[in-house]
């Protein structure tokens, strides 16, 4: 117990002050930059946002370029970075199409995924942890037109998947 004013016992014990946290400065390239989580309008395509020249990190994979170009006029679709890939398309903050391991992966209703798998057009998507995703299908390069499948996926996700 510590002694307060005039030697009377105090009910609180003296604590050492907590170490002061100092702010760390952002690197100069990011100072003042607004964080957008890597999202750019799909309309920007390979050129990046605001028509800026493409950087290696913002480049669109040629196999996915036609899909991105198909959504150039749709302002609700954004191209984002996720899972260390630049080739991800989202609508309303939700992914509907992405390029993974050289194939198109799209989110579709479970019945449609079942049909595509049954017809030999696609395979169920396994992100790598052994759990197959029921509403995601992988369409290889030799399958149907990726743009049509991506449009179907965008409509499904935009209209409230599930």
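^ Assign residues to that structure.
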């Amino acid at each position: 117990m510590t002694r307060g004013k005039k030697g009377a016992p105090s009910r609180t014990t003296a604590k050492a002050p907590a170490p002061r946290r100092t702010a760390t400065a952002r690197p100069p390239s990011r100072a003042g930059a607004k964080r957008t989580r890597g999202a750019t309008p799909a309309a920007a395509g390979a050129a990046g946002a605001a028509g800026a020249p493409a950087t290696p990190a913002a480049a669109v994979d040629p196999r996915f370029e036609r899909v991105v170009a198909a959504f150039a006029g749709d302002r609700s679709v954004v191209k984002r970075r996720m899972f260390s890939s630049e080739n991800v398309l989202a609508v309303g903050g939700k992914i509907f199409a992405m390029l993974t391991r050289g194939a198109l992966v799209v989110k579709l209703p479970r019945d449609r995924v079942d049909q595509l798998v049954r017809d030999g057009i696609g395979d169920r998507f396994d992100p790598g942890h052994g759990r197959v995703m029921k509403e995601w299908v992988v369409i290889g390069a030799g399958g149907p037109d990726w743009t049509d499948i991506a449009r179907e996926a965008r409509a499904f996700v935009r209209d409230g998947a599930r």
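Helices lie at 62-70, 110-118, 146-158.
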